[in-house]
Design a protein that fits this description.
The protein is mainly beta. Helices cover 6% and strands 42% of the residues. β2 and β3 form a beta hairpin. The radius of gyration is 17 Å and the shape is globular.
Length: 209
């Protein structure tokens, strides 16, 4: 199977490598044991690989993209983001456009602090999506020193939505509306010693300009 690498994101252990096939299938490239790729893995954004893999068993929605990589061969590398955008749009992958509420089958909910998430009340079919936003995303640093991007909802009384950035590419102060973005839902998680249910939180993986 041919796979175009479209994202690499920070994880607690290793990196999460995301790709897309010519037919528009989203894949997450785990190692043969089902773990994240190591930090020094060879996969780089814009590279195309021929990959031999096994389907991961017992998938937990919405993380239906996981595959177990057995062997791989580098076929080439796209020269720039323009070719990257063309390659993505020429697949059958759906690209969400417009308001953030449209993402993930309109399943997103938001905390009082503006963090997007899903819970078990409505689980989308996939945990990754391309998105062309209708508003600029503005960078800021939170109290923990983490990079987040703010999105202003249509309702002026609602809190600004903040999306955690987990990608490896250099940040920008403003990501203009109309930019092709890749967003994802983190693995199911709930803080210890609370009554909060398990959730998958919205995060920004990268963008292509």
């Amino acid at each position: 199977m041919k796979v175009l690498i479209v994202s690499k994101t920070h994880m607690n252990t290793g990196v999460c490598v995301g790709g897309i096939t010519p037919k528009g299938r989203f894949v997450r490239l785990l190692d043969s044991f089902g773990h994240n790729q190591p930090n020094d893995c060879p996969f780089k954004i814009k590279e195309v690989y021929e990959i031999t893999f096994k389907e991961k068993q017992s998938l937990t929605p919405p993380h239906t993209e996981d595959i177990l990589v057995e062997n791989f061969k580098l076929l080439g590398r796209l020269k720039d983001h323009i070719r990257m955008i063309d390659s993505i749009t020429n697949t059958n992958a759906s690209i969400c456009k417009g308001n953030i509420d449209n993402l993930f089958d309109k399943s997103l909910k938001f905390t009082t602090h503006g963090k997007g998430y899903i819970n078990s009340s409505k689980v989308p079919q996939q945990s990754v999506s391309f998105w062309i936003a209708d508003k600029d995303l503005i960078k800021y640093i939170d109290s923990d020193g983490k990079v987040r991007y703010k999105y202003q909802p249509d309702d002026p009384w609602s809190p600004e939505i903040q999306i955690k950035y987990v990608g490896l590419q250099p940040t920008e102060d403003t990501i203009p509306k109309g930019t092709l973005l890749r967003v994802s839902l983190a693995r199911w998680w709930a803080p210890d010693n609370t009554e909060i249910e398990k959730r998958c939180y919205l995060q920004l993986s990268g963008w292509y300009k």
